[in-house]
Amino acid sequence: MANALCLAYLLLRVSDFFEDSRFIDCDEKVRLLSTWDAILGGTEFPARWRDPIASSVGRETDAIAAWYAPEILAEFRALPRGLQSVVVQHVRNTTRGMVRWVKRGPHLHDEADLDDYMHEVAGRVGYLATEVFAWHSRSVRRVRSSLMALARETGLALQTVNILRGITEDAERGWSYIPEVYFEQEGLSREGFLEPRNRERADRVVARVIRKAERHLDAAVEYVRTVPRSVHRVRLACLWPMMFAARTVGLLRERPYDVTDDVKMTRKDVRKIVRFTTAFGWSNLLVDRYFRSLMSSRSSLSS
Q1: Number of Cα atoms under 13 Å in the Cβ half of residue 222
Q2: CATH number for the 144-303 domain, one of 1.10.600.10, 3.30.70.60, 3.30.70.120, 3.40.190.10?
Q3: pLDDT tier at 298, thresholds 50, 70, 90
Q4: Where is 24: in which H helix or E strand?
Q5: What is the Cα–Cα distance from 226 to 110, expressed in whole angstroms?
Q6: 294: exposed, middle or buried (C-beta count within 10 Å: 0-12, 13-18, 19+)?
Q7: Of 26, 98, 208, 239, which residue is 20 to 30 A from 159 by alpha carbon distance?
Q8: What HEC string does 86-145 produce?
């Protein structure tokens, strides 16, 4: 299961690189994503596959996955055919969704736009992971339909937190994943969002995104509660990113919101979360209580 998830993740990283690269223009991104989609469907790699990637190697981390895509895909082809089919379907759907959004451009009008974008890049990943879990585990297969109903929201939860953490970096490359209506309702422009004189109104915009992350995270914790206790390591694989996201939200809530800082957990935070979930992740009650404490209080990990 771990090998299948790792390979699926690496395939997705190839798509992510083509979508996010700072050094590839939009038309070329569309071409490369479409080429990658066709390759996943069974066509051969073009002879000069690495040429448009070379300038990004050493400057963008995901370029490494794209550079080694032929080797990654060769490893992936060793998986059982049925499992390959499930994974490829979701990776191709995500890649096509990225094509649609690259063509559309970097701005989102309203929350429906944001949810649509996040569904393509993260919600579908929730479906993919659930399918891999179910392929390998009979106990997960029994609750598959319940998990699939929550998988999209779980992906959206993690992606919303990523958006919060990347607001400044995204702005520097001319992107924003905050809906235009959020700015308009506070009398702000996208361009003036990060200006110091607009700090109070910008805080309210960020607070709104935080509340959105919290709503999605509520579904994410229910997803974990639905994963059978008998597959503890699967629960941990789901718990860790969810708890890290909850901790990040807690940090954002406890300070005045400062999106110009790189808000992240400490290594001590990570160790404590891993220790607690490894020991008590089997308990839905304790998972829920710990999750709420991480989201609501910075002091919950201070001792």
Answers
A1: 16
A2: 1.10.600.10
A3: low
A4: none
A5: 31
A6: buried
A7: 26
A8: HHHHHHHHHHHHHHHHHHHCCCCCCHHHHHHHHHHHHHHHHHHHHHHHHHHCHHHHHCHH
Give pLDDT, residue 252. 85
At 260, the pLDDT band (50, 70, 90 cuts) reads low
pLDDT at position 199: 85
pLDDT in tens, 109-134: 999 999 999 999 999 999 999 999 99
Among residues 5, 292, 278, the alpha carbon closest in space to that of 140 is found at 5
For CA atoms 91, 213, 17, 178, the dihedral sign is: positive
Q: How far is the C-alpha of 249 from the C-alpha of 297, rounded, in Å?
A: 9
Q: Which two tokens stand for residue 130?
A: 């659930």
- Tokens matching residue 231: 């597959």
